[in-house]
Amino acid sequence: MSALPSLFVSHGSPLLALEPGRTGPLLTALGRAVPRPREILVISPHWSTPTPRVGNLAQQRTIHDFGGFPRELYGLQYPAPGAPALAERTVQILRDAGLPAATDDQWGLDHGAWVPLRYLFPDADVPVTQLSLQRQMRPEYHYRVGQLLAPLAREGVLVVASGSFTHNLHEVFRAPSEDRAEAPYLAEFVAWFTEHLATMDLDALFDYRARAPHAERAHPTDEHLLPLYVALGAADDAAKQTHFDTGATYGALRMDAFAFGNAAPSLAEVAALAQ
After folding, report:
1. Where is the Extradiol ring-cleavage dioxygenase class III enzyme subunit B domain (predicted)?
2. In the chain, what is the straight-line distance between the N-terminal and C-terminal CA atoms, in Å?
3. 213 in a domain, yes or no?
4. Contact 22/247 with Cβ under 8 angstroms?
5. Cα separation of 37 and 157, whole Å?
6. 170 lies in which domain range?
7. What is the pTM of this model?
């Protein structure tokens, strides 16, 4: 079969689950636009381990890994089936490349995974498993992990990398209003990053913290951007890409999404499904 695209989606605040804004409808249309996957492998910055771990639960567990939010948020579930065979396959791929990967039966789906999945695949009927991030590692490492996982796309597996295109929580907490105007510096960071993505300037992208304008302000720590490199590496042709701009929430959290690969749906295709 032809390879599925890989996705990077921004999940922003856990409140996205209750307040879809522009992002929720975009993710729902994007989920309709991609070929239906047999299984999903999701990567989130909220599960970070020193070495790769892959969840092997037969039935997924919804993790509410946050505090101080409205009560109804804690009642939301994403009861998707697990994908233990995919977990074993993923571990074997990574081990064959020399990475000390292992399965894990203690985790589940954290909010970086289940919140966007509730929009992408609202019926929760596609088996899904989660791969941990190594936040101490550089972008090059995560791109390489994506490259190793690329064969899964021809086996009907959709790689969904979840994070945030910008992620400065200090600025969010300073004035926590969803309608707060977007900080002006974000436009410069986004323009630089999307330009270098479009030209696949990997040297610049790997060194974004030194080269991109306002990089350390956009990402005081970079774990919410690292999943993008996994999606980039996992694509059969990452130069074929679609950028979905849904602006910012809380002034500092850019909610952009990207589809990479020959099967990446176009803006027009997704827009038509959002009607």
Report:
1. 35-239
2. 29
3. no
4. yes
5. 6
6. 6-179+223-272
7. 0.97
Task: Give the chain's domain count.
Answer: 1
d(CA 54, CA 158): 15
Count of positions (residues) in the chain:
275
Q: Looking at the domain assignment, is residue 159 inside a domain?
A: yes
DSSP category for residue 3: P
**Cα(203)–Cα(192) distance, integer angstroms:** 13
Q: Are 25 and 255 in contact (CB under 8 A)?
A: no
Inside any domain, residue 112: yes
Q: Which two tokens stand for residue 112?
A: 């970086």
Does residue 32 lie within any of the structural domains?
A: yes
The CATH number linked to 153 is 3.40.830.10
Please enumerate in sequence order all residues whose Cβ is within 8 A of that of 39, keeping only pairs 6 or more positions apart, or say none: 83, 86, 126, 127, 128, 129, 156, 157, 158
pLDDT (tens digit, 0 to 9) for every residue of the chain, 275 residues total?
Answer: 689 999 999 999 999 999 999 999 999 999 999 999 999 999 999 999 999 999 999 999 999 999 999 999 999 999 999 999 999 999 999 999 999 999 999 999 999 999 999 999 999 999 999 999 999 999 999 999 999 999 999 999 999 999 999 999 888 776 555 556 788 999 999 999 999 999 999 999 999 999 999 999 999 999 999 999 999 999 999 999 999 999 999 889 999 999 999 999 999 999 999 86
Q: What is the b/e burial string over 169-189, where b = at least 16 CB atoms within 10 angstroms of the residue's CB?
A: bebbeeeeeeebebbebbeeb
Q: In this structure, what token pair is assigned to residue 162?
A: 């979840």
Sheet architecture: strand order including 102-104: 102-104, 53-55, 128-133, 39-48, 157-163, 6-10, 257-260, 241-244
